Amino acid sequence: MTGAQSQRDRKHMDPQTLLAHYERIIEISQQLNTTLDHMALLKKIITAATELINADAASIMLLDESTGELRFAAATNINPHEMEEIIVPLEGSIAGWIATHGEPRVIEDVTKEPSHFQGVDNTIAYETRNLLGVPMRAHNKIIGVLQVVNKLNGDHFTEADIETLTTLASQAGTAIENARLFQQSDFIAEMVHELRTPLAALKASTTLLLRPEISEEKRREIIETMQNETNRLIQLTTDFLDLARMESGRTKLELAPFDLNKLIMESVEVVRQQAEDKHIRIFVPTEINYVVKGDRGKLKQVLLNLLTNAIKYNREGGSITIYTEQVEIDEQPFVEIAVQDTGYGISKENQRHMFQKFFRVASTEGYSQGTGLGLAITKHIVEAHGGHIGLESEEGVGSTFYFTVPLVQE
Ligand SMILES: Nc1ncnc2c1ncn2[C@@H]1O[C@H](COP(=O)(O)OP(=O)(O)O)[C@@H](O)[C@H]1O
Ligand SMILES: [Mg+2]
């Protein structure tokens, strides 16, 4: 296929259509550069791809550098749940070939192509007949593949289609990179802002300590403040790191079967003293022993986050009850773990923001320290296990946070 052929393809279009086509490409390109929301951006790209190429469906697969696999990031014909399940191998798939060779590829009849990866069609019950894929680059590095399948009206993909999709992919690559950088810089800005508060407190304390007229009692007080602020800095930096790792997909879970009740007992032991200080009693399940499959250390972090919240945002003399129950999600066995407290509860409006990073209910800020990152981290961990997290809460009565983890099948 040559440039000359592409010229011929274009000649099939009447000048009016051709003009409209170019105008549409320019319009899309402008839209892409103003969209910084990652998901919205990807959706715009695939919609534009089906429209410009006149194909039935389009998808974007992004390269996961750490595992060397391609994963669907957006597709017009695959739902998000199915997308998560599908891993496209670099070897043994056409998209993998495109990502490795950095060249476009047209397959006129996938049934005659041994390297076509059947996994996608099998999962989503779709019949791919033909496809065109092009590599997506950012800063000269291949970051994924943009692919259209099943050209409409029984037509063939043309050289002009390859050119159009390549143009779109190159604009998309830059836009994706911009959106990623923007998200990162947003996070860094918020992080630095959060670090400034304890640092300012520490600076003020040192200035005070240097004053000769300060009483011994006052001196003790200042040092205690400094200790608190230092602890807060340590907690903040640990949480930031955890969250940054998870958001960029650099956290790898170490999955193994383990006894859930033992983990619950262990976690309760960690917070026992903190609960007793507020005269809060903790009730744990004893009847059924569940063996779950997950990253034990990370799931302990989930339990500790929920338990410390249930203590921090509870009333003096309140209680916490942990429930476990087997549930089915998409015919797979899971255990639902619920942590119920008798605390202040959370208003409907605040419930909607509960899992956003840095979110704290304004009225709780006064009486308890926190980073507002605990639940955001918790949600990441649970979802990385294929589970769900949610809450029910009533103001003045209490809250129940529940999450699911996969059960080991007997
Ligand atoms: N069990 C609970 N009861 C009432 N409010 C809660 C509970 N858990 C969390 N919250 C509210 O949600 C906010 C976010 O929680 P989290 O992400 O763990 O951050 P942090 O505990 O560091 O503030 C808390 O500041 C608190 O206002
Ligand atoms: Mg917390």
Tell how many strands the DSSP assignment holds: 13
CATH names the topology of the largest domain as Beta-Lactamase
Going across the major beta sheet, what is the strand order?
3-2-1-6-5-4
Largest sheet: 6 strands, antiparallel
Radius of gyration: 27 Å
Bound molecules: adenosine-5'-diphosphate, magnesium ion
Overall geometry: globular
Cα(first) to Cα(last) distance is: 56 Å
Give the name of the CATH superfamily of the largest domain.
GAF domain
Structural class: alpha+beta
Unreliable parts: none
Give the number of helices.
12
Order of helices and strands: HHHEEHEHEHEEHHEHEEHEEHHEE
Number of domains: 2
Text of the CATH class of the largest domain: Alpha Beta
Overview of this structure, please?
The protein has 2 domains: 178 residues, Beta-Lactamase, CATH 3.30.450.40; 157 residues, Heat Shock Protein 90 (2-Layer Sandwich), CATH 3.30.565. The protein has 12 helices and 13 strands. With 410 residues, the protein is α+β, with helices and mostly antiparallel strands. Helix content is 49%, strand content 22%. It is globular, with a radius of gyration of 27 Å. The mean pLDDT is 88. The strands form 3 sheets. Strands 3-2-1-6-5-4 form a 6-stranded antiparallel beta sheet, sandwiched between helices. A 5-stranded mixed beta sheet has the order 8-10-11-13-12. Adenosine-5'-diphosphate binds next to helix 10 and helix 12.
